[in-house]
Amino acid sequence: RGLLTRLNTPICIVCYLAAIVWFMGLAFEPFTLRTDMSENAMGSTMVLLRGASAVPRQGVRSSQKTGAVSTWLVKAMQSRGLEVFTQSFSRKLPFPDENKERYMVRGTNVYGILRAPRAPRTEALVISAPCSPGDSNNQAVGLLLALAQYFRNQVYWAKDIIFLVNEHDLMGTQAWLEAYHHTNITGMEYSPLQGRGGSIQAALSLELSSDVITSLDLILDGLNGQLPNLDLANLFYAFCQKLGVLCTIQGKLQRNDWDTAEGYTHAAQTMMLMVLKQACGRSWGDHGLFLRYHIEAASVRGINSFRHYKTDAATIGRLLEGMVRKLNNLLERLHQSYFFYLLPSLSRFVSIGCYMPAFGLLVVILLLRALDLWVHLGAPALAAVEGVTEAQQPSGPAVLTVLTPVVISHLTGVALYLLPVHLQEMAVEHFPVSETEAVVLTAVAIYTTGLALPHNTQRLLSGEGTEQGWKVLKLTALLYLAVLLGCTALINFSLGFVLAVTLVPITASMTPHMPKALSALVMVLLSPAFTILYCVFIYQELIEAPVSVSEGWMLFLSVISQGILDHALYGSLVYPLLALFIYPCWLMFWNILFWS
Amino acid sequence: LDSRLPLVIFLHALTPAAARDEFQEELVIRPLHSGDIYASFQFRTLWDTDFLQEGQKVSHYRLFPKSLGQVLSKFSVRELHISFSQGFWRTMQWGQPFIPSPPGAELWVWFHDTVSDVDGNWKELTNVLSGIFCASLNFIDLTNTVQPSASFKPLGLGNATDHRFLRYATLPREIVCTENLTPWKKLLPCGSKAGLAVLMKSEKLFHSSFHSQAVHIRPICQDEQCSSKAWELRQTLNVVFDLHTSGQGKKEWSLFKMFSRTLTEACPLASSSKVYVDITDNPELFELSPATPLLGQAVVLGDRRTYSVYDLSRAETFGQLRSFNLLLRDMLRPLLHAERYVAGFGLQTGEIHTVIYNNHPYRAFPVLLMDSVPWYLQLYIHTLTVTSKSRDNKPSYIHYQPAKDRHRPHLLEMLIQLPPHSMTEVTVQFERALLKWTEYTPDPNHGFYVGSSVVSALVPSMVAMRTNFTQDQPLFSSFVPVKEESSYFVRVYTEPLLVNLPTPDFSMPYNVICLTCTVVAVGYGSFYNLLTRTFQVDEPSPPLSKRLANLIRRIRGVPLLT
């Protein structure tokens, strides 16, 4: 104990550095594991691929011109021998989505079910393709129909296959999934489904943006950082290898030169991209919404990166056929492989056991500091052993002095969570801004106001902040932060880690006796909002599209509006987590800095 | 055929004292609206005897299979219905089947009211039947057996209503295949050697969209006066062939294409052997070759239908029964239709939704809904709601028997009035139980099955049903006795459910067991070794250097090293 209190600061610094080094080491290939198929039913069975050939995308295009996609799709699916159903949905967004330019959304999902012969409708697979107005995903819808036609004539299906063409990308998927499971989490209005296929075992989403495809990108990050079982990624990789298709993850091809600096940087960049994408907690493809329902899902996105090597639609058809057939062979849900992992490349993964120590080292700092404080708080009490009653007397006001800042910072958090969306009309009336801008700027304003608010709170009550007062408050705040980050990291490692990297140094070292102006500046620069800003810049850097400061600022604002929208539309938890818990916690430390 | 006929007569003459028995066989082919072909075989053996009479032991069997007869008399069975199905009957596409059955295996038995230990008899009976039909019926035990109070009434003679003598069980997971078909075929008097059973080639029968085989045994009246009892054994086999996959887009079929066999003769033991082809929907649009002059009409499932009849006992039929073409027409929606699904997500709670459709334009009718849910889904019966047209629909009769953990399942029976042209939704919430680790199946992540719920109803008929009992009615229209002219009996099964329960990671205990075993083996091994080994003090000879040193020391006269 003596050692821990005496060497507390050096141990903390060592822990922090070790955590960063450990994390960066994860991308180094000798430290990672090679992926291999764990599921027996998908591993050794041979699948002979024949593939769908003709891709009827002309029909999609022409029907889009006349604006009757759903009727055309119903006919096209019916003529391929599927049971076809439609579902209409509508939703008014809390405020206009400027990225996708929509506010009042009304759409129709069309889905056809290929009934497996002699199967009792207990299990199903889903292949989906988003079909939005415009030319964007025609290729995928065409491929979907071609697959349906080919699959219909095969006899080996053991699970029903649902071909879903969803309008308005994620919103359509959300409406369909909610109707399929008869839940309503987000207040979407939809018509009930007429046909079902039992419990869905796996889903694939297909996005082919252009006619020329040079490589396929696999997208795994789902809502709230959920990931599908690693076997799904393995399956995709195995078939890409077999068919000689270039496959990427996070848009990055795999490199073989892990022992060179470039090779390592490449792997680290890929992993960082995954961490950033996972941390933001949004669904990066239609598959992301399936994960909530315990349906393993991934998106396959065709990319035209202007290479010489081109992949034709028939090869992609064969790839999908292979994947669906292997999934059809499944006897149990995918459960053999990992659910928590990071991928520095498609063939290498970092399992939860490897990356958790990096986070653990960061949280240990908080606990060590808390222990240190606890010892310091206990020491005077021990010294005054006789005056037990006297030692207990100040604990009454101490609780109150701790409680007031806690309550006030949480009320600020609640305001940050509720007000932006609810005050938008008022803001639009009084200021010359659009609704979206109003929401985002209100959020920023409340965030900034929160900094000014709680300076004097404890003085109102107890008059003078005591030395013990801030220590108790800091002890509470440290433990609170440790629990918060720990819980976050269990669900979404990346979010927990990114928050811990920025929050831990300032929170661990914060005392009221530091130079106010400098430490206030450092604290603001490492606050949750600035963390988001840095993430935006790093992300742009990693996807090789660097932005200037003003562009970055605009992106930052749109990220905030997207975060609020994701919460309202799909139930993403990052915005409430930041507003209701992380930000108030940070405010408590801000309060300590201005303790007097 | 002609050469065999005298032999049959001869056999008849030899056994004048035996009770009269009779065998009929029949095949109905019905082109479905979805473009598929529905083929339904029915074989009926009638025997004017009574197994259950006291003191009289029936030992002389002719057409009736002896294996079943012995079972009936040993276990005092009054009525026995067993079905094995692979696949789900798609009511919305195919209409009503002649005899419905749920996916998997279903068994329901009425015992004679003299039986004292019904559960014991039931247990033994399921084991015997599982041997006869090569099926896993021995998995039926008290945890999946229920006693429905209203849904399953005896179909034969006698109006026993005390449901203590009824046992009902389903095995939704049962997979039906060739090994179940062979013993089923062996129950036929001609086996698969002659008659319609020649067509039952398993390779083709199991290459279909739906396959169902059943055995129904019940007592019926011998004649219209109903003075004495006869036993009826009906064996049915229903298949739906998918023309889309096999026909390369052409809506054309023949017996040979479907079964890879043609008919050559009737079963010589059969008193009647007929093939019916349903031509109601488009009598002039398809061409049947050879054409038949015989047209029959039958009222079945509330609809008057026209059939071309081929009598196999007449020689002129065997020209060739071959290809015919037909076209599609829009179908009428089936009047009664039901489906079921699990709502919600997560592994803690869920909700079972059963949706029943009444598609009749103006008539309301009551249905009996029966649900049997395994105990590991703990139903919250207070959350039971029945809504029709978004209004609360109060069932007029509810029979609910709560489950006992590890002993018996939930049983819920309700009589619900369905308003005309409506959708009625029955929902009930449940919580998923945590099983003991030995109770999980070998593949726990596959999920656990909940058997189909059963909707039984008297559906208003569009045409008058025939209530009188005549012998020359086709078999497929005479299975369920019709009591009124204005309605007919229908039973609809919903799809079974697959529910995931919270499942531990079983590889973890496995690893622990492996590790423990290794540790125990190594630990025990060395400990045992230590205990049983006899130790001897070994006088080590000192090493050479020491001996040399001692030699020198002895010469020098200093004390020696030890």
Automatic annotation (TrEMBL), chain A:
Transmembrane annotation, as ranges: 6-28, 349-371, 398-419, 477-506, 518-540, 577-595
Signal sequence interval, chain numbering: none
Membrane protein topology class: Multi-pass membrane protein
Pathway it works in: Glycolipid biosynthesis; glycosylphosphatidylinositol-anchor biosynthesis
Domain of life: Eukaryota
Location in the cell: Endoplasmic reticulum membrane
Entry keyword annotation includes Transmembrane: yes
A GO BP entry: attachment of GPI anchor to protein
Cellular component GO terms held in the UniProt record: GPI-anchor transamidase complex
Matches recorded under Pfam families: Gaa1
Broad class of the protein's primary localization: endoplasmic reticulum
Annotated keywords: Disulfide bond, Endoplasmic reticulum, Glycoprotein, GPI-anchor biosynthesis, Membrane, Transmembrane, Transmembrane helix
Gene3D superfamilies, alphabetized: Zn peptidases
Known function: Component of the glycosylphosphatidylinositol-anchor (GPI-anchor) transamidase (GPI-T) complex that catalyzes the formation of the linkage between a proprotein and a GPI-anchor and participates in GPI anchored protein biosynthesis. Binds GPI-anchor.
Quaternary state and interactors: Heteropentamer. Part of the GPI-anchor transamidase complex, consisting of PIGK, PIGT, PIGS, PIGU and GAA1. Interacts with PIGK.
Protein name: GPI-anchor transamidase component GPAA1
Organism expressing this protein natively: Cyprinus carpio
UniProtKB/TrEMBL annotation, chain B:
Name listed for the protein in its UniProt record: Phosphatidylinositol glycan anchor biosynthesis, class T
Signal peptide feature range: 1-19
GO annotation, biological process: attachment of GPI anchor to protein
Organism: Cyprinus carpio
Domain of life, source organism: Eukaryota
The keyword Signal is annotated on this UniProt entry: yes
Matches recorded under Pfam families: Gpi16
Annotated Gene Ontology cellular component terms: GPI-anchor transamidase complex
Keyword vocabulary terms for this entry: Signal
